[in-house]
Design a protein that fits this description.
The protein is α/β, with parallel strands linked by helices and 309 residues long. It has a single domain, classed as Purple Acid Phosphatase, chain A, domain 2. The protein contains 9 helices and 15 strands. The strands form 3 sheets. The protein has a 6-stranded mixed beta sheet, covered by helices on one side. It has a 6-stranded mixed beta sheet with strand order 7-8-10-11-13-12. Strand 12 and strand 13 form a beta hairpin. The longest helix has 20 residues. The N and C termini lie far apart (91 Å).
Amino acid sequence: MWKFSYAQRLLWITALGVVLTLSVTAAEPDIVILHSNDIHGRIETDDGVLGMPYISALIRQHRAEHEHVLVLDAGDTIHGRPVANQLEGHSVVATMNAAGYDFMVPGNHDFNFGYQRLLELEEEMEFQLLAANVYKDGELLFAPYAIHEVGPYRVGIFGLATPDTYQTTHPRNIEGIEFASMIEAAEHYVTILQQQNVDLIIALGHVGFGRNYPSTDVADAVDGIHLFVDGHSHTLLPEGRYHNNTLFVQAHEYGKYLGRVEVFLSGDRPEFSASLIPAAGVTDIEPDMEITEMLEDFRAEVRRQILGI
């Protein structure tokens, strides 16, 4: 029989522990979620800004490397720069379609062209706009939630739009629109999603921290939200932040980062590893040339409109 000294046994146990740790760390996530927020029309690549060409390239890279990828945007996206504003958001939606987004929640500045224009843009979207607390004449203006099948997993997503919109866009843009209680909406749709036996519940919110209606209030009042993909406060959360068992993530602002969340679903409840991909870290990939060419066409159209030619 083999006999080992105490030192040899200790070395073996230590080595085994390192191997096990590496195995856990290197485990393939069940789902990878990519997320953006508060792009504010910055779909063109600039110094320190990914722009949609690089966001799209990262999405494609992740979908080539991982079987189950979900792409979300937390609002304040379609308004903010000339290439977006002059075309009333069409250029933003078109490039998001080409990039392969799955879901978006409307931010306060996404109403800046008027809610009717947002409804027109919704018709152009190849991704789904979600908001569980936005009403017009007593009826929900957008789909409140969705159950999205990602491979064998069922992901429940509901949208929350901040009532701060009353003060942060012109009143005529939202005339007749009601931003109802986010807590009541969250309670209602979390219950619905739990009854549908989803594997993961995501709140996709343009709500934010430290404002009149902080998103942490929702997590305090409503149990069962596993992940809150947030925006509005332009918060930089390099590894996310837990609050009442809910992981909150934001990717700062203007497309300076693309958020990334690895989701592991083998345990009793979902586990996460959150990070950010900075614009400075994408020098080794090529931008999406299709979107680059689209942007050239949009810039030419903006010039024609401004110059009247």
